């Protein structure tokens, strides 16, 4: 069965047909690196990592590109507030991003282009748009002529007239038309900048991805992906400038993940309800966080709360218990020669169901349901008087096969000594801060891992149970 995916451009599920046999050219919009990432950033990282993993599972070679926006207004503002240089802040939070997503078992991209390292390509891209008449310079700024692209609005399914009614020219802008968007910004005094044919400045947001995608993947790519919030205007503008520049289709398939809500409210910094990933994975098993993110179809919105995460942990633990019970049962199993055809067929059918669900627009929610069915059958088998090591291995192999694609692990991992010491230090600080809830939480967390704490006048001691 071939993979079908929902294409935002056509609003239909389409059979995936790569530009080159067994190759996938995939570009995912990455973060603006001015701060730590939040759970809203984590969702596309997990979702499209899983898409990549599944393509690889089906035998494709995936050239996966995820960019870093390492210069923009937010970075400049952060640099001014912290009295640091923009590149210093960018380096810090690129490192933090990689550490955070690695804990969520997100694979490293094949290419991680940065805007500041692609500046010559961006400037050349803009020059060619001007030469072709699709862009114009105005007192150090450069704008794209939106009306010059007849298909503008085809991704967001809006007409140019609908867009025109809400467009405004902001103070300081020198656009010919309110719909025109910025390709190059003239530098303000003291701002980080680059030399260009139009004077010192820096690129607009949209042009960056077009230039980076072209540089690393070519003029036409298979899949362009990102959060739903990027569809308009970011991806719409990418299409316009790329197709005018390249004279060909920019991306054949567009994928967008749904929004995240926090406690049934839209996540926003103004509401103070955003959750940073590096704090989240200190409190919760990253495997459970990833499991939770994939328990809802990627195009649907997902509600995030401590209660729902705890429910996910309980569900995850059921899968883990079934898996670990199999491993324990194997020690008492025999290399039986009896006919295992019935169990072989059940396992094979579950594998085919997993593939069927993932082939249908990467339906991880249904794929996880298959995992629970696998756990149910595994539990039934493990309770038999006699079990075969062959069938035990077939069960565990399929568990490993599916969870490797989904990117989480059911293996029982033992805490290392330095991890235990770090948690004890955090507990000591929490008690000093009178945050007794967090202190108790850490004690319980360690207890679950078989680590017993003893508080003495000389300090906290620990031992493995």
Q: Remind me, CATH topology of the largest domain?
A: Rossmann fold
CATH class of the largest domain: Alpha Beta
- Total individual domains: 3
Radius of gyration: 26 Å
SSE topology:
Layout: E1 4-7, E2 12-15, E3 23-28, H1 39-57, E4 61-66, H2 73-82, H3 86-103, H4 119-131, E5 135-138, E6 141-144, H5 160-166, E7 181-186, E8 201-203, H6 205-217, E9 221-227, H7 231-246, E10 251-257, E11 260-262, E12 265-266, H8 277-283, H9 286-294, E13 302-304, H10 306-330, H11 341-359, H12 364-382, H13 389-406, H14 417-432, H15 436-448, E14 451-456, E15 459-464
Parallel strand pairs: 3-4, 3-9, 9-10, 11-13
Antiparallel strand pairs: 1-2, 5-6, 6-7, 7-8, 11-12, 14-15
Helix pairs in contact: 4-6, 6-7, 9-10, 10-12, 10-13, 11-12, 11-13, 12-13, 14-15
Quick rundown:
The chain contains 15 helices and 15 strands. The protein is α/β, with parallel strands linked by helices and 465 residues long. Helix 10 runs antiparallel to helix 13 (389-406).
Describe what this molecule looks like in 3D.
Belongs to the class-I aminoacyl-tRNA synthetase family. This protein is an alpha/beta fold. It has 3 domains: 254 residues, HUPs (Rossmann fold, 3-Layer(aba) Sandwich), CATH 3.40.50.620; 130 residues, Isoleucyl-tRNA Synthetase, Domain 1 (Orthogonal Bundle); 48 residues, no CATH class. A 4-stranded parallel sheet has the order 4-3-9-10, with helices on both faces. The chain has a 4-stranded antiparallel sheet with strand order 5-6-7-8. The chain has a 3-stranded mixed sheet with strand order 12-11-13. Strand 5 and strand 6 form a beta hairpin. The longest helix has 25 residues. It is globular. The relative contact order is 0.11.
């Amino acid at each position: 069965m071939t993979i079908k995916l929902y294409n935002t451009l056509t609003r239909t599920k389409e059979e995936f047909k790569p530009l080159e046999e067994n190759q996938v050219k995939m570009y995912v919009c990455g973060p603006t690196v001015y701060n730590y990432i939040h759970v809203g950033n984590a969702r596309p990282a997990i979702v499209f990592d899983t898409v990549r993993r599944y393509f690889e599972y089906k035998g494709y070679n995936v050239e996966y590109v995820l960019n870093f926006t390492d210069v923009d207004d937010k970075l400049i503002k952060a640099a001014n507030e912290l009295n640091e240089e923009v590149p210093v802040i960018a380096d810090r939070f690129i490192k933090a991003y990689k550490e955070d997503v690695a804990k969520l078992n997100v694979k490293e991209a094949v290419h991680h282009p940065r805007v500041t390292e692609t500046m010559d390509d961006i400037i050349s891209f803009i020059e060619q748009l001007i030469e072709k008449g699709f862009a114009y310079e105005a007192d150090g700024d450069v704008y794209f002529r939106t009306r010059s692209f007849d298909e503008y609005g085809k991704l967001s399914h809006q007409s140019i007239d609908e867009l025109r009614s809400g467009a405004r020219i902001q103070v300081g802008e020198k656009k010919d038309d309110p719909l025109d968007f910025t390709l190059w910004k003239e530098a303000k005094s003291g701002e980080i900048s680059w030399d260009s044919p139009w004077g010192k400045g820096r690129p607009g947001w949209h042009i960056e991805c077009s230039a980076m995608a072209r540089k690393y993947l070519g003029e036409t790519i298979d899949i362009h992906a990102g959060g739903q919030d990027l569809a308009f205007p970011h991806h719409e503008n990418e299409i316009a400038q790329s197709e005018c520049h390249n004279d060909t289709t920019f991306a054949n398939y567009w994928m967008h993940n749904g929004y995240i809500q926090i406690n049934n409210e839209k996540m926003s910094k103004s509401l103070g309800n955003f959750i940073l990933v590096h704090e989240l994975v200190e409190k919760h098993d990253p495997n459970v966080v990833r499991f939770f993110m994939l328990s809802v179809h990627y195009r649907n919105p997902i509600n995030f709360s401590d209660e729902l995460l705890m429910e996910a942990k309980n569900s995850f633990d059921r899968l883990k218990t079934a898996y670990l019970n199999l491993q324990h049962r194997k020690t008492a199993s025999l290399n039986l020669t009896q006919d295992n055809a019935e169990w072989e067929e059940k396992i094979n059918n579950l594998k085919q169901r997993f593939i069927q669900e993932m082939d249908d627009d990467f339906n991880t929610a249904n794929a996880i349901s298959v995992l629970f069915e696998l756990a149910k059958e595994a539990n039934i088998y493990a309770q038999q008087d006699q079990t075969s090591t062959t069938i035990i291995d077939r069960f565990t192999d399929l568990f490993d096969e599916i969870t490797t694609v989904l990117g989480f692990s059911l293996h029982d991992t033992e805490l290392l000594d330095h991890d235990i010491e770090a948690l004890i230090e955090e507990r000591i600080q929490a008690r000093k801060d009178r945050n007794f809830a967090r202190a108790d939480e850490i004690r319980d967390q360690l207890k679950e891992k078989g680590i017993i704490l003893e508080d003495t006048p000389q300090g906290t001691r620990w031992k493995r149970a």
